[in-house]
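Hi, here's the filled form for the chain we discussed.

Project: internal
Contact: R.S.
Residues: 238
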Amino acid sequence: MLGGNCAVLNEMSTTASSHDRETIARINYSSPSATTYENNTDCIQDGEYVTGSIVEYACSEHYNLKGSRRRICIGNGRWSRGNALCEPECGRKVPQGLSAGGKPSAIGKWPWVAAIYDVKNELLVCGGALIREQWVLTAAHCLAIDGIARPRDRKDFRVYLGKHYRNDSQDDGLVQKREVSTVILHEGFNRYNYDSDIALLQLTEPVEFTNRVELICLPKHELRSLSEANLEDGVRGW
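And the returned structure, exactly as it came back:
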């Protein structure tokens, strides 16, 4: 959500209470891209909102509010400045001790890890990392046609999020299954030396964020090298 015309409330759940000439509306956004509004829009439409109205923005669970939490309908009939944005949480794992030597992790400890399966052969081909609601980052060699630096058909793959056990029969109701709409290999991928061995999978529909499914945190744009971030991590997979 960017900016806000508070007289337009489609695709949102709201509750409002009136006291004299002040209305307090609490707006919950299930996704940061659910609805976009232009800045400096009229906050008085059909008499629904009046000068002095206050709108408080809140995000759904697993999202963090960035920007102004409150906007006021000022004397010129427009909302006060200040944008609000609901951004998905990232990198939040279940607190556990370190696991070394290939020991099993606790269920849900790594909520951004995706399992990529070969549908026809019913085999786990690779792991991946959830970077947006509908995008998984993985290795190009996992998705390429054997001996050719071109992607296999998207229908060859299925992606699981929130998965712990390799055997599907042990999955519970918190595992999310998604089909693939697009397979993108890095244009510089070299099948001989694995240079630029990186790829993206676009899912047919966004995932639902839960304690078992969240994004991995990506480096900030201004970061010149990963060594500057002073990060520690390890290898995840089955």
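Let me know if anything looks off before we file it.
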